[in-house]
Structures are given as structure tokens and as C-alpha cells.
Amino acid sequence: MGKGGGCVPSKKRQQTVVADDPPRSTAPIALEEDRSSAVDGYSPIAKLKIFIVFYSMYGHVEGLARRMKKGVDSVDGVEGLLFRVSETLPDQVLEQMKAPPKDDSIPVISAAELPDANGLLFGFPTRYGCMAAQMKAFFDSTGQLWREQKLAGKPAGFFVSTGTQGGGQETTAWTAITQLAHHGMLFVPIGYTFGAGMFKMDSIRGGSPYGAGVFAGDGTRKPSETELALAEHQGKYMAAFVKKLFQPQGF
Question: 3-state DSSP call for residue 55?
Fold first, then answer.
């Protein structure tokens, strides 16, 4: 018993020392989780979608749209979806204008569906060098998308139909660019990427660096193979552009 009643520790007993840091283990650090099963179960990314949205009264623009879809679908990982905009003319007027009935297999699109697309191709006939009223009415219905800038940065292109060679193959697309600008969208023209086909002069051919086109004449002329080939090229060109824009990195 020491002074003050305290116990004198034995010299043989080792005192416990608490280290500032715990001893480091030399064993390999275990991974939190083996994620190989997640990799094995990895599902491919869904196909990119290009909406081909058009108005066609006599079928000329629709013919380009269908061939354009073929071009889009030819690019791996991208698919084209056809949509038409709402008709604004009453049936009685369409009958007097001898307009054929619409194909019910192509759905009517609403403005609210546009953000679901990775890219957009808009087709329409000309009305005095500008888009037809039916397509303009559709763009006018996108006000809420504009307010929220839901379409900003989304790539888009145009294809058109005119009655005559001076009827607006370029101006119909050119005047439509304002719609894209206010939405902050990216205009993707085809330029002269169609190659020699852009310089053919041996037959009537619609289309311009702005996009594919067809000459309808009095309504009885059908798109030529060159015009259809240009539409297919535009679909393929847009699909490749969208795929490059949205190509995931690191895979």
C-alpha cells in the first residue's frame, strides 16, 4: 500500500497503450461490391429517336417522309418515327380541293411529344414561300415548350414541296428557321453532302442545301427517284448527326 492509499502497479504487468491511430492492416482492401453481375446484365441503350413530323395535302411531302424514314432506320441505333400534324381545313373544303384521305396508320402528334425526340425533321408544302398554315399552327402550339426551353439544343431539319421551280425550294425552309431560333434548336442543313446528285441537271429535281424537296407541279407529278434518294440521304445524314451528338462516352 503506497502513500495516499494508492496501489503500486506490478512491474511485471504490461500497461495497455492506446495508440493515436489504429494499426494498419496489410491485407488487401475488399471491394464494396462485386458488380460483375451488373455488367453481365447490362442492357443496351435504347435506340435514339428521330421524329419525322410533316403536313401533306396531296401526298408529295408524305412520300419524302416515308423515304426519309428509310434513311434514318439504316443507321444502327437510330429509328425514325412518322407523325403528321393536325389538319386545319374542314372536310368539305378538302373534298373540293380533291385532297386524298389521310393514312390513319400515321398518328397525329401533339406539341407535348416533341421533347421525347432526339432529333426532328419537319416537312411541309409551301404557301407563297413559307410553310403551310397547318404546320405554322402546329409551331404556334409550342408556346409552353418555348417558355420552358424544352427544345433548346435539339437538332432539326426541313424538307419541302413546291408547285414550281421558282416556288420556294429554298425560301420555304429558310423562312422556317425562325421557328428553330426562338426555341434555341440546332438547324442541320444537308449542304452538298448528297454529292453528284446535287449537281444533276438532266431532269427536274427538288431539294436544296437546306433540305430535300419535291416539285409537285399541278399536284399530279410524283417525286422522282432522285428526289426520293435525296430524302433518304437526309434521313441518314440526320441520323448520323444525332448519333454522333448523343454518342455515350466511355463504353
Answer: coil
